[in-house]
Write a structure and sequence with these properties.
Blueprint (H helix, E strand, L loop, with lengths): L6 E7 L6 H9 L6 E8 L5 H10 L7 E6 L5 H9 L6 E6 L3 E2 L3 H11 L5 E9 L5 E3 L19 H7 L9 E3 H6 L11 H11 L3 E11 L18 H14 L3 H20 L3 H13 L5 H12 L4 H8 L1
Parallel strand pairs: 1-2, 1-4, 2-3, 6-9
Antiparallel strand pairs: 4-8, 5-9, 6-7, 6-8
Length: 318
C-alpha cells in the first residue's frame, strides 16, 4: 500500500490502565496495512505506563510505534497538537486510551474519504457501552441493523452541529493537511470535539461512512462524564467560548436560531449543576443574539436568584 494511504493513530491515555492494552491491540488488528501508532501516557498515576510498555515489549509484526511519557498531566488539546505537528501521514486519528477500533474501521473510513477527498474528515457510527454493560448504537438503527435516518445527505451540517451533538467524535478520521491548516485543536480549551467539528464544518464538507467503527465506553473516569460537574465543571467554560466563536462565524438568521437552541440547552444544565459563572456568560450571549421567551426569562430569574438545585440534579441524573 502506498505511503499516501498511511494513517497515524494518536492515542492519548490518562489513567486508562484498565483498557489501554485492548485499545492498542485494536490498532494493531486494523486491516488497513499502512498505519503507525503514537502513544502518549499523559501523566497517568495508575499502571497505564506499565501496561503500555508491556504491550509494546510483546508487540509482534511490523507496526511502527512511538511512545511518549509525560511526568504530569498536560492539557489534552496541547498534547495532541504537539504530536500532530510531527505527523506527515495524510490521515490522522485521535484515539482515546479507553476506546476500541473494530478491524475495518480505518480501511472503511479512508475508502469513503477518498470518494469525498475534499472533506475535512469522515465519521461513522459507533457502539456505546455504558456503565451497566448495556450496548447501543450512536445512531438509531432498526431491527435489521439499517440506519433509521438518511445519512447520505448531511445537508447543512454546520447548523446541525451548532444546534446539537451529532457526531461521535472517536469515529473521526481527519485529513491531516486540513487539520493542520486550521491550526489543529484550540489549545486554550479543556476539550476538543465541539470546537474542531464546528470550525471544520464551517469551511469544509464532511463525510459519513455507514459502518460501526468504534466501541466507545461511558464511565465515571471519562472526561465527558464531568461535562456538567456540580459547581465546577471543567468543560462548561470551554463550551461558552465555542459558543462565542459560533456567534462570530454565523452569517444567517437560521444559524443564530440554532445557536439559541444550543445556548438554552447548555444554560439549563449550567443552572441545574449550579455552575453560575458559565450560566451568566451564556445569558449574556443569549442577549446578544436576541433570545426571548418565557423559558429564557425563567432561566435569567433563576440565575439572578442563584438557586442551588444541584443536589436534585445529581439525584435525577443518577
Amino acid at each position: 500500500m502506498r505511503v499516501s494511504d498511511r494513517v497515524t493513530v494518536i492515542c492519548i491515555a490518562y489513567n486508562h490502565a484498565e483498557w489501554i492494552e485492548e485499545t492498542l491491540e485494536s490498532v494493531r488488528l486494523q486491516d488497513h496495512y499502512s498505519k503507525e501508532l503514537i502513544v502518549v501516557n499523559n501523566g497517568s498515576t495508575d499502571e497505564t505506563r506499565e501496561k503500555i510498555e508491556n504491550w509494546v515489549r510483546k508487540l509482534p509484526g511490523s507496526l511502527p510505534v512511538k511512545v511518549i511519557h509525560h511526568k504530569e498531566e498536560l492539557p489534552y488539546c496541547k498534547v495532541f497538537n504537539q504530536v500532530l505537528a510531527e505527523v506527515d501521514s495524510p490521515y490522522v486519528v485521535d484515539l482515546s486510551g479507553d476506546d476500541v477500533m473494530y478491524p475495518e474501521h480505518l480501511s472503511q473510513s479512508i475508502k469513503r474519504l477518498k470518494r469525498v477527498n475534499y472533506a475535512a474528515f469522515v465519521f461513522s457510527d459507533a457502539y456505546i457501552l455504558n456503565e451497566e454493560g448495556e450496548v447501543s448504537t450512536y445512531y438509531k438503527r432498526n431491527t435489521a441493523g439499517e440506519l433509521v435516518d438518511n445519512m447520505e445527505e448531511l445537508g447543512d451540517i454546520y447548523t446541525t452541529l451548532v444546534r446539537q451533538n451529532f457526531i461521535c467524535s472517536p469515529t473521526i478520521v481527519f485529513q491531516t493537511e486540513i487539520l493542520k491548516k486550521e491550526g489543529g485543536y484550540d489549545g486554550s480549551l479543556s476539550y476538543e470535539d465541539f470546537d474542531i467539528q464546528i470550525r471544520l464544518a464551517r469551511k469544509y464538507p464532511l463525510a459519513f461512512s455507514n459502518h460501526l467503527g468504534i466501541l466507545k465506553r461511558k464511565h465515571p473516569k471519562s472526561l465527558s462524564s464531568g461535562q456538567y460537574q456540580r459547581y465546577q465543571s471543567i468543560m462548561l467554560p470551554s463550551t461558552v467560548e465555542v459558543c462565542r466563536k459560533i456567534k462570530e462565524m454565523n452569517t444567517h438568521e437560521s444559524e443564530d436560531e440554532a445557536l439559541g437552541i444550543r445556548i438554552m440547552h447548555e444554560l439549563k444544565h449550567a443552572l441545574w449543576s449550579a455552575n453560575f459563572d458559565p450560566a451568566k456568560s451564556l445569558v449574556e450571549l443569549g442577549e446578544q443574539i436576541g433570545l426571548s421567551g418565557f423559558k429564557y426569562w425563567l432561566y435569567k430569574f433563576w440565575l439572578r436568584k442563584r438557586w442551588d438545585m444541584s443536589w436534585l440534579y445529581i439525584k435525577i441524573k443518577n
